[in-house]
Structures are given as structure tokens and as C-alpha cells.
Amino acid sequence: MLDLNTSLHRTRTLVRELAITDFKLKYQGLALGYLWSLAKPLMLFTVLYFVFTRLIRLGDSVQNYALYLLLGVVLWSYFFESTTVAMMSVVERRDLIRKVYFPRIVIPIATSITSLITLGLNLLVVFVFVAVTGIGFRITLPLLILLLVELYVLSLGFSLLLAALYVKFRDLRPIWEVGLQLLFYATPIIYPLTIVPKRFAGLMALSPIAQIIEDSRKLLVSPHALSTVDYVQWPLALIPYIIPPAVLVLGYWYFESTAAQFAEEL
Q1: Range of 152's domain?
Q2: Is 211 a member of any domain?
Q3: Tell me, what's the pLDDT at 107?
Q4: What domain count does the chain have?
Q5: Is 15 inside any structural domain?
Q6: Domain membership flag for residue 234
Q7: What is the rounded average pLDDT of the residues 67-75?
Q8: Fewest 10 Å CB contacts: which of 63, 70, 71, 75?
Q9: pTM for the complete prediction?
Q10: 3-state per-residue secondary structure call for the chain
Q11: CB 14: neighbour CB atoms within 10 A?
């Protein structure tokens, strides 16, 4: 039991140190430093907000559209960044893997925590926006933590799976990036599901990313916002909540089953 506790402590320490190091290196040498973690989603938000309120005027039909859009962009940016960076994390640590033995799984976990730190900073901007606009915080706000845990579980599951697959299949990177672009437009980030034809809205609502974003808006933006259960009947409405832990189990199993060959394949 003592050896197990010692091993877990060392693993936690290694994950923490790698995560902190990755976060520092990420912005090292940049004039704005950590502010870039806030600038990227804010710039995307600004462009999308201008386009869909001034040119296409889609935002006119959505209450508190600015916050609606900002929250969606922040949550999506975390999923995009965490999975994309984690996918390449094992390959980028090839020299360390060849020289030192340690649990390989700490590498994608550390990168996921680095992205989680960035998400926390971006959510602070969202909370400031909520306070400034006068929307106010409701008593259900703590439930947002459960949705963030769900988002982390989903992202980590994909991160483990992608990191292990990328060791063997380097073409996975452009494929995943194209897939994310398609998923971005197939997810209600810049538009509400209410404008989507009903036969497609129900299918889109089964995506865990869509469910997390829509449920988060219901907690932060408007209690009248629709969620998965408004589009899909039970028990199908459980699907987006089941997918994240299922992906995590699959990702963990595949990563651990292939980790022993990483040093030879890199």
C-alpha cells in the first residue's frame, strides 16, 4: 500500500510539473505572454459577433447574443486546443520517452491540464461579461462545474485516443483538424438550434459538445434556453451524457495497451 501511495504521489507530481512547464513554455518569449490565452478566443468572438450581428444579423433573434456566442466560443476553443495539442504531445516528447521510463499517460494528461488552466482564465472573462452586462448569476451556477467536468472527461478521452493513434498514423493531424472544422459548424456555437430544421436539430442535440454548450447557456445566459431533452425524447436524451465516459474508457484502454511500444515506434 505504501509503494502504491508513493507511486501515485510521484505520478501526480510529474503531471503537475509537466502541466506547469507546458503552460509557461506555451507563452515564453511572447510580448503579451499569458494574455494570448485570452486574446485568441476573444478575437474569434469579435469576428463572429461582427459578422452575425452586423452583416448576417443572425444575433438579432437571440437574447443576450454576445454572451451566448462568447460562452460557446470559449468552451469550443478548449475542446479544440486540448485535443489538438494532446494529439501531438507524445511524439513531441519522443526524446524524453526514449531516455527515461515513466507512465506515458502523464504526457497527454499534463497537456489537458494546461488547456484546462487556459479555460479557467477564459471563463473569468465570461463571468466578468455576465456581471458587466447585468444578467447576473443564478443559484444554479454551481451546476456549471458538472458540465465542465463532463467537457474535461470528453476532451481527455479523445486526447488519449488521438495521442496514441498519432504515434502510428501521422496523417491523423490534418484529418482531425478538418473534422473539427466540420464539427464547429455542425455545433450550435454561432447559431441556436431553434433555427435548424427539427429533423436535424434532434440529431445535432445528441452531440455531447452541443449538449454541454447548450446546458451551459441555460445556466449562465438564460433559463429559457433549450437543452437536449427539449429536442430528443428519453432515453435517447441520455446519449450525449454517456458518450464522454465511454470515450474516456476507450481512450484510456487504447493508450495503455499501446504505450509499451511508443519508444520503438517514435
Answers
A1: 34-265
A2: yes
A3: 87
A4: 1
A5: no
A6: yes
A7: 87
A8: 63
A9: 0.87
A10: CHHHHHHHHHHHHHHHHHHHHHHHHHCCCCCCHHHHHHHHHHHHHHHHHHHHHHHCCHHHHCCCHHHHHHHHHHHHHHHHHHHHHHHHHHHHCHHHHHHCCCCCCHHHHHHHHHHHHHHHHHHHHHHHHHHHHCCCCCCCHHHHHHHHHHHHHHHHHHHHHHHHHHHHCCCHHHHHHHHHHHHHHCCCCCCCHHHCCHHHHHHHCCCHHHHHHHHHHHHHCCCCCCCHHHCCCCCHHHHHHHHHHHHHHHHHHHHHHHHHHHHHHC
A11: 16
Is 56 contained in some domain?
yes
Distance CA(110)–CA(106), nearest Å, equals 6
CB contact set of 260 (below 8 Å; sequence gap of 6+): none
Q: Taking a C-beta distance cutoff of 8 angstroms, is the pair 64, 135 a contact?
A: yes
pLDDT reported for residue 241: 93
